[in-house]
Amino acid sequence: MTPTSKVPFLDLVTPHQELEAELLAVAKKAFSNAGFIGGPMVEDFEREFAAFCDSKYCVGVNSGTDALRFAFMAAGVGEGDIIVTVPHTFIATTEAISQAGAQIAFVDIDESTYTMDPEKLREYLETNCDFDDKTKKLTERKSGLRVAAVVPVHLYGQTTDMDPIMDLAAKYNLVVIEDACQAHGAEYFSKKENRWKKAGSIGLAAAFSFYPGKNLGACGEAGATTTNDEALAKRMKMIRDHGQAKKYYHDIEGYNGRLDSIQAGWLSVKLRHLAKWNQSRREHAHRYHELFADVKGALTIPVEAAWTKGVYHLYVVRVADREALQAHLAEAGIGTGIHYPIPLHLQKAYQHLNYKKGDFPITEKVALEIVSLPMFPQLKPEQLALVSSSVKEFATSKVGAAR
Ligand SMILES: *Cc1c(COP(=O)(O)O)cnc(C)c1O
Questions:
Q1: Nearest CA to ligand 1 atom 2
Q2: Whose CB has fewer CB within 10 Å in the chain, the N or C terminal residue?
Q3: 257-308, pLDDT tens digit by residue?
Q4: 90 lines ligand 1 (CB under 6 A)
Q5: CATH number at 13-269
Q6: What percentage of the chain carries pLDDT values higher than 70?
Q7: What is the whole-number distance in angstroms between the Cα of residue 97 and the centre of ligand 1?
């Protein structure tokens, strides 16, 4: 074994080898009737995933990015509207906003959960915008555009603190679309409703990605939108299929954004294992937490807020010298990642938004310090032990302890 493969950052081979017979049976079934687009495999998966998310409807599409973009369109948000999100996320979140024709506005994250800080959202809505009580329209003063929607991103598999965001949305007539692309099965405790709610069942709609490395991954590209709103689900179905509710009767111009039947069939097979896989991720995370308890001065470990049951899509720690930790782990044959190194407001693609360094200090600070450690359901106890002993070795070294 080469030193770089002792603990991969992510093992996608093992689960597919374990499920190979079942996955091949799905492909054979599709070959037997050539039903590659739509049909019962897609409908079955949509029903199963809606149930998994405690949502009434699920509409399968070709990616998480389109799940978001189509959800904005189906919710009537687009040209001339502002959609507010966080700069600490994957660029797909903001691509979907721009590609739906809307403008991006950012608010900063909370330093302990890495998700949207509801107070920062309040500050933006209340100091930068005016609300017209008669028209129920919130307008950003600077641009004169309507603020129409908010996209909390349940990053790393932890839910955003949704109660205060839903309250603000109700007060200012905003649509909430959850980016749940990293949070399949994560839960949020709503104090308002005094119950646990599944990620994807809280806002008007939510987007999920089934990119292979996600907690529920296809063997290719796939995504879905969940919602409790029947009309929105219907519009989503038209948008993904060239704007037609009936073949060749196009009420609007739509897209080619459908979920393939073979991918849907594969997702159904894997969905049966998702709860168990998420539980394994939680157990690995809690083991990491325990093992890192005595190096907390040098290492910031993930905080699971009282209102979230995380599904640990990623296990992200923070250190002062992130590159040194990555090099130390690479030396020991351990893979790592950075999610994400450059905040979106500082990306070249968003120069035109005229944000500058210092605008979102928490995001900027966090982006310099984060490292994602190996985290996947099949992570073996000895692999986890090697990762944690190597991280601790670094944290107690001269470079690692300096903070
Ligand atoms: C993966 C991801 C997406 C996009 O999903 P794709 O299926 O790759 O289009 C969007 N937002 C977040 C936070 C993601 O992690």
A1: 181
A2: N
A3: 999 999 999 999 999 999 999 999 999 999 999 999 999 889 999 999 999 9
A4: yes
A5: 3.40.640.10
A6: 99
A7: 13
For 188, the 3-state DSSP assignment is: strand
CB-facing half-sphere around the CA of 123: CA atoms within 13 A: 9
Cα 29 to middle of ligand 1, angstroms: 29
- In three-state secondary structure terms, 402 is coil
Instruction: Indicate left, alpha or beta for 144 from its phi (over 0: left) and psi (-120 to 50: alpha).
Output: left
User: Which sequence spans correspond to the domains of the chain?
Assistant: 13-269, 274-402
CA of 261 to the centre of ligand 1 (A): 20
- Calculate the CA 16 to chain-centre distance: 22
Could you tell me if the CB of 61 is within 6 A of ligand 1?
no
Which ligand 1 atom is the nearest neighbour of the CA of 92? 10
- The whole-number pLDDT of residue 344 equals 98
* Residue 355, ligand 1, Cβ within 6 A: no
Ligand 1 contact, 278 CB (< 6 A): no
What is the third-level CATH fold of 274-402?
A: Aspartate Aminotransferase, domain 1 (3.90.1150)
Tell me the pairing of strands 205-209 and 175-179.
Answer: parallel
Q: Confidence band (pLDDT; 50, 70, 90) for 1? A: very low
Kindly state the helix (H) or strand (E) to which residue 101 belongs, with its residue range. none
| End-to-end Cα separation, the chain, in angstroms | 35
Atom 14 (ligand 1): residue with closest C-alpha?
Answer: 181
Q: How far is the CA of 345 from the centre of ligand 1 (A)?
A: 18
Does residue 373 have its Cβ closer than 6 Å to ligand 1? no
What is the Å distance from ligand 1's center to 207 Cα? 9
| Ligand 1 proximity of 209 Cβ (cutoff 6 Å) | yes
Distance CA 214, CA 149 (A): 25
The pTM (predicted TM-score) of the whole model is 0.97
